[in-house]
Amino acid sequence: MANERFITSELNAREENFEATLRPQVFADFPGQDRVKERLRIMVEASTNRGEALSHILLCGPPGLGKTTLANIIANARGSGIKSTSGPVIEKPGDLAGMLTGLNEGDILFIDEIHRLPIQIEEYLYSAMEDFVIDIMLEQGVGARSVRLNLPKFCLIGATTRQGKLSSPLRSRFTMTCRLDYYRVDELEKILTRSADVLNIAADTAGLHEIARRSRGTPRIANNLIRWVRDFAQVRRESIITGPVADQALTMLDIDKDGLDEMDNRIIEAILVKFRGRPVGLKSLAVAVGEEEGTIEDVYEPYLIQEGYLLRTPAGRVVTNKAEMRFGIKGIGGDVSEQPRQPELF
């Protein structure tokens, strides 16, 4: 058992090192998200000129778009130290107090998945973010007393994939909220070009384009796929990743030319065939395709909606004409506008 834990720890460490190697360190090396980068540049430059700590920043958007990378770029641009953690890790007020008191003036505390903070921990953040103090309760019952700790002026950068899960009091304490969107194919090509250089992978423009357009608009997926295509090319004894090589490698993963994988297709097909094109609730859809509701809602639906294959309506999930044309199946249930508008029961 101890040996298994050691192996798992080693694998996780290698994966983190791989991610760190590919992450840009400055804004200039971070393709895409131009409007977000410009806002952050202005904030960093203004705080540097004033000699003050950065205001608190909330980064939100689907997973894999670069929220953690941006937090580190901000710290580098500001010349500040950064301490990183995640919401589920902070279980007690003492955990939070230890991290906050360990910061220096102007440092950054980065909390990933901040929407998963326990509510009692979240409440301690209110005074920390506004007044840079935190009150810790010592003991309980009759002898209970609180101790106020003064904190250095710091910047909290929160990252979340589910902004709506944050409470209003916490969300309102962030000065700037930046939403990251899916990347265009040309932006992903720039990311893959840099990754190929860092990993010493030989690939031509057609090969990188093939990977980019099947990466669901997500840099993390693109970087994972280029590693797989590299392995495929090596085993097949190809000296360079070309368009045909990338196509064969990704087809083996059941990723088609539109970037849809097996589960994407199962979701669309289930609505068209099993539910005859009629609106379907999330719970029923999850049962039909054998996947968890949260996974469908957070991982698969955003891209299907973004690409115009799926819609959420008050009656439930429905497919679009684009999805019907893709499968050559016309939903038997008729046009969605003709469906009765009743509350979704599942």
User: What fraction, in percent, of the residue positions are helical?
Assistant: 40-55%
**What's the CATH C level of the largest domain?**
Alpha Beta
Broad shape: globular
What's the total count of β strands?
A: 9
- From the coordinates shown, what is the CATH architecture of the largest domain? 3-Layer(aba) Sandwich
Keywords: ATP-binding, Cytoplasm, DNA damage, DNA recombination, DNA repair, DNA-binding, Helicase, Hydrolase, Nucleotide-binding
Region (Large ATPase domain (RuvB-L)): 3-183
Protein name: Holliday junction branch migration complex subunit RuvB
Organism: Oligosphaera ethanolica
How would you characterize this protein structure?
One of its GO terms (cellular component) is cytoplasm. InterPro entries: AAA+_ATPase (IPR003593), AAA_lid_4 (IPR041445), DNA_helicase_Holl-junc_RuvB (IPR004605), P-loop_NTPase (IPR027417), RuvB-like_N (IPR008824), RuvB_wg_C (IPR008823), WH-like_DNA-bd_sf (IPR036388), WH_DNA-bd_sf (IPR036390). Residues 184-254 are annotated as: Small ATPAse domain (RuvB-S). Its main location: cytoplasm. The protein is α/β, with parallel strands linked by helices and 346 residues long. It has helices at 2-22, 34-50, 67-78, 93-101, 119-131, 168-172, 185-199, 205-212, 219-235, 243-252, 262-274, 282-289, 293-306, 321-327, and strands at 57-60, 82-86, 108-112, 133-138, 145-150, 155-160, 176-179, 310-313, 316-319. α7 (185-199) packs across α9, α8 runs parallel beside α10 (243-252) and α9 (219-235) crosses α10 (243-252). It folds into three domains: 2-179, P-loop containing nucleotide triphosphate hydrolases (Rossmann fold, 3-Layer(aba) Sandwich); 185-252, Helicase, Ruva Protein, domain 3 (Orthogonal Bundle); 262-338, Orthogonal Bundle (Arc Repressor Mutant, subunit A), CATH 1.10.10.10. It has 14 helices and nine strands. 49% of the residues lie in helices and 13% in strands. The two termini are 41 Å apart.
